[in-house]
Sequence to fold (295 residues):
Amino acid sequence: QLIAESTGKEGGGILPVLGDAGQPPRDLSRARIFVEQRLAGGASPHGFTPATAADAAASGHPALGITWQSTAGLGAEFFRWEVATALTGALLGIQPFDQPNVEAAKRQARELIEGYRREGALPSDPPVCASSGMQIRAPFEAASPADALRRLLPAPAAEQAADAARGYLAIQAYLPDDAALLAQLEALRQRLQARSGWATTLGIGPRYLHSTGQLHKGDGGRGRFLQITAETRADLPIPDAPGAETSAVSFATLEQAQALGDRRALEAAGRMVVSFDLASDPLEGLQALWAAAGD
Fold:
């Protein structure tokens, strides 16, 4: 949140990507810096090794290692990165302390909720494809999930112009914070990254809206977006007022409005978004999506 939301605006920005130490830097997009943080005497949380640093250096990617002598070092790291981000904003010529594009998704979500209160339903675009229990919505025709992913992903890195190779793919998953689902999402992220050669990020919705969401809409438009939704198994009503027993909107409806609102905000900003609705079994749907990513 600190890096992406502070720098991702006015046509630029720095994209944070977590847990990429296992991917050889030479296979990733250009203009990368690798940062490892670890507690003294402990293992790297993302498999960062001296060989990783050497591989990064040989590929022209700077590598920075930060070791904390105790867990109290966490507070110092907050301060270090806050100062670094403010200085970076000055070097980039931007205001690091605002979030001008976050409001776009909020506004869309508010309008959708007001429409839901009037109509009793959220709008739904017709899918371009339905397969294996999932529905796909995209700005193009697609014959299958694999076809939709092929159209979303860039051409192989060897075929891209040097400038185009610096794009990224963002997976936006409106799914429960469940260990099995997160593991399958990470497997999907790694497969798509290896296939495209692009830096690939994973964000859980709607919380990513207040971290990388600003950069997604405020940077130079290099990102493409894979949105994943599913039916909510457990839902709770939101009281119309504090203490009220009446409720016109539930948490599931709010989440659906946030997902649709962000998709519309991205599209309004000229970004390519492909949405996969996995229906009632998100794990089975993710496994099918992972298989389609390999076709």
About this structure: The mean pLDDT is 88. The chain is about 40% helix and 15% strand. The two ends are 34 Å apart (CA to CA). The first helix runs from residue 2 to 7.
